[in-house]
From TrEMBL:
GO CC annotation terms, alphabetical: membrane
Record keywords, A-Z: Kinase, Transferase
Enzyme class: transferase
Domain Histidine kinase/HSP90-like ATPase: 283-392
Molecular function GO terms recorded: phosphorelay sensor kinase activity
Name the record gives this protein: Signal transduction histidine kinase, LytS
Native species: Streptosporangium roseum (strain ATCC 12428 / DSM 43021 / JCM 3005 / KCTC 9067 / NCIMB 10171 / NRRL 2505 / NI 9100)
Amino acid sequence: MWSTSAWVLLCALSTFLGFVLSRRRPASPRHPAGLPDEATFATLHITALAAPSLRAGLTRDSARKAIRHLRTLLGVSAIAVTDADGVLAWDGAAGCHRDHAPEHARTVFSSGRPYVVAGDAIACDTPGCAIRGAAVVPLTVDGRVIGALAAYDTEVSAGLVRTVTEVARWVSGQLELAELDSSRRRAMEAETRALRAQISPHFVYNSLTTIASFVRTDPERARELLMDFADFTRHALRRGGDFTTLADELRCVDRYLLLERARFGERLRFTVRVAPEVLPVPVPFLCLQPLVENAIKHGIAATGGSGEVRVVVRDAGPEAHISVEDDGLGMDPGRARRLLDDDPCQGPGEGGIGLANVDVRLRQIYGEGYGLVVETALGAGTKIRLRVPKLPTR
């Protein structure tokens, strides 16, 4: 289903395509206006070339990469993209007007409306300069004017003003999407930081206490456990990106299980079965360890007895299928829903260090169909399943 913003962008694109095509080639009996043809393809191709740069936001680099394509769309002598600090990029002849572009854009920053520059306001002392006017249109994000698009030509007609306005509307749409991408990245980074902050202090305390108990009786075992603890914390607290490989994530899980095994002794049994071909698959950082912690905390430790945790990773064609299962007490399905409904940014709740956090991040990255699936019942243990696409994620 298309979102409202997608429909708005599509309508804006359709509208300005009509204006651009009318400027690029007049209608003729052989090429009636409005029919798809080479000019339509060329215009769509140019917008596709400009879009990736604009999705990086309004910067000097993105404006410089996109401006040539925008001038080709408009078919004018020169074009400028400015922000509040000055000219970000200029393309075309009449460079004598480049330094005047910020002054020409000042009106649209204050009014938020298109502005036509003509007469004495556009005059210059350069012999042979053919520029006689400019159409300057605001670039907006969330209703804020963040820049201006100015088209310079030998004359400024009403058609040119409409065309520049529609192109600027399309550019603004791309900048809106860039802002959404940036907001999404910031939200994901905040959730990852929250997940790191939620690493259970009880786990840290219990691990160090367990290691200390071996210092006198079995120094070599204490040394090995201390190295396992160091490896685990290095992975959990690293300042990497949002993704790691499945191999690295499983290594973190292995270290966690070894530390918990040292604490529980023979009461905790675990098996890890992994299809080797999925080890390089990129996965969200800290997406498995919280599931294993949940299995130990709610499935085994709560019983006061013993139990087993099983981690299985299968190759499923375009996806890797992962399950974390325990044979503990299980829980009421309503309680399982509450674990997933915990606010992932409010610190550790009933779900330990973040079942909800993992669930939210999976859905944000891959789509609503990729959240956690919890299978449980009282007295029947708990199994948590997730799917991860093999395709690399940007």
